[in-house]
Amino acid sequence: MADPPGCCSTCATCLLCPYSCQWITAKKEKRKGLRTTKCDCSWFLFLFCVFLFTLVWLYFAIIILNDFHNFNEFIFKQSKLWLDWSLVLLIATAVLISYSSVLLVLALCLQLCGQPLKLHWVHKILLILTALVVAAAFTGLGIKWAEEWKSARISLQATGPFLHIGVVGGMTLLAWPLASFIYRTRNTGLKVFLLLVYWAAMIALYLAPLGITSPCMMEENQLPPKPALVGHRGAPMLAPENTLMSLHKAVDCDVQVFETDVMVSADGVPFLMHDESLTRTTNVQAVFPERAALNSTAFNWTDLQQLDAGSWFLERRPFPTVQSLSASDRHEAMQQKIPSLGQALEAAKQSNLSIMFDLRPENHSDYQNFVNVTLGVILQSGIPLQQVLWLPDGFREQVKQQAPGVQHVYGRKKLQNEKEPLLHINLPYQDMSSEEIRQYRQDNISVNLYVVNQPWLFSVLWCSGVSSVTTNACQVLKEMKHPIWLLPSSTYLMIWIVTDCVSFLVVLWAFVLLK
To answer: In this protein, which residues make up the domain named GP-PDE (predicted)?
Structure first.
């Protein structure tokens, strides 16, 4: 193979050495008569597939960051070890994608320089390991976190138009090494096969926007109002979750609803706590080591008041935002105790804040008494009942009779033969399509979706017309005055046509120029 004009021997050698791990010059390679064999071509194809595989995983890794705090909590419940596993995920993914990207770029440059693609056996082993690691990651995602496949589908509504442009650009650049290989090889069958596959892929990409839809493809005057914010356990990125400090931080973020979880102590005092165990969000292991594993409802109120419900937040740093807290906020966090429901209702009443809660655990043998005690605290607090949003399904009819002003929120979609109309529903964001959200909006049903932390997801739901979202990142979503992008369909059509035309001309130019 002759070097193409402009590809010096030194450059070819610098490309060949890291790819083949052989520190010999390109001229010596020629004297040996080395050429790219069918086996080498197979390994290049495998390298290309591994690169695409890791690239898809990188996309998934970025998407699932919205829900990664749930994964951290799950790991803590299993191992009692707290770590921000999102950092581990991103670092590992960055290493894998960087490695496969560098190898692919080297291979493409070697092809343009007319050098043999002799991939070293060490790279072959590492590529196989990379493929196995990514396959294991996808398998684990499908088994333990299957709802994230729905998240990926929703993400395409936010990224689809831009992914199309990026993929078309990448495939267009691929025309150069492909044309170089086709003009150098003497195998006519292989030439025809590669050309057919390449142009079939390009035609599919050129027509892909026919299947790309997004609720954010609309005119500015069609944009629904910005969704209201519901603080998930308050403002857990700025203060320890389910504390009065977290409630007050949520008020500062213009949150309209404080979402929390209620349990009832052994002596009948409702208090705020999400986990059935106290180990994650208190120092119960230090204060009551022999009782640390017990259910939260096994402790009386006097015992609960002895626990520190804030220091864990500074020690474990459940969110990166903890590092940027001021000295006064850190001091306040260290003073936090487990609040009673009565204290939370009083704070909500003073701030004109609605409160929405689940009553846990639903399978407790004394659950009906929990409902009665909780209702008693609500009625005694003096908070306007329309500011109370009731989530528990158990004994709902009893609640309607004793506190008729309470707003009932249902964790399900409406039924076809609904006896009484639903006014409020609360569902995971993966369970509602844009079309369903629009339909519920037309039916005057308030839809709250949880948990929404990333601006791209908030933008999609905003364009869809959702009423409110439950979020950990109220301080981020508060600052959003507009969806990340809003594009009229006519403008996107113009971008689509221009992108395809430019790509087609560049591909033709590559084949003509290299000939």
So the answer is: 227-481
Secondary structure class of 71 (helix, strand, coil): helix
**DSSP annotation of 322:** G
CA nearest neighbour of 426 among 450, 442, 402: 450
Pairing of strands 228-232, 257-264: parallel
The token duo for 58 is 């990188």
Kindly state the tokens that stand for 89: 């995920």
Contact 261, 357 (CB under 8 A): yes
How confident is the model over 277-305, as pLDDT tens digits? Answer: 999 999 999 999 999 999 999 999 999 99
DSSP letters, 476-506, are HHTT-SS-S----HHHHHHHHHHHHHHHHHH
Global pTM value? 0.91
Element containing residue 272 per DSSP (H, E): strand 270-272
Phi, psi of 239 (to 5 degrees): -160, 160
Burial 81-98 (b: 16+ CB within 10 A, else e): ebebebeebbeebeebbe
- Asked if residue 430 lies in contact with residue 212, where contact means CB atoms within 8 angstroms, the answer is no
Name every residue whose Cβ is closer than 8 Å to that of residue 44 and which is 6 or more positions away in sequence.
107, 117, 119
CATH topology of domain 228-478: TIM Barrel (3.20.20)
Q: What are the Cα distances from residue 230, in Å, to 40, 234, 237, 258, 316?
A: 56, 8, 14, 6, 24
Digit-coded pLDDT (tens) for 296-354: 999 999 999 999 999 999 999 999 999 999 999 999 999 999 999 999 999 999 999 99
Strand, helix or coil at 326? coil
Residue 10 — pLDDT band, cuts 50, 70, 90? Answer: low
Hey, what are 334's tokens?
A: 């260290």
Shortest CA distance to 232 belongs to which of 411, 472, 424?
472
21, 45, 124, 126 from 39: Cα distances, Å? 18, 10, 12, 17
Each residue of 18-75: pLDDT tens digit? Answer: 888 765 544 444 445 467 788 888 999 999 999 999 999 999 999 999 999 988 998 8
Give the residue among 239, 477, 451, 229 at the shortest CA–CA distance from 335.
Answer: 239
Query: In which residue ranges of the chain is CATH 3.20.20.190 found?
Result: 228-478
Q: What is the pLDDT of residue 342?
A: 97
Q: Are 429 and 461 in contact (CB under 8 A)?
A: yes
The Cα diameter of the chain in Å comes to: 93
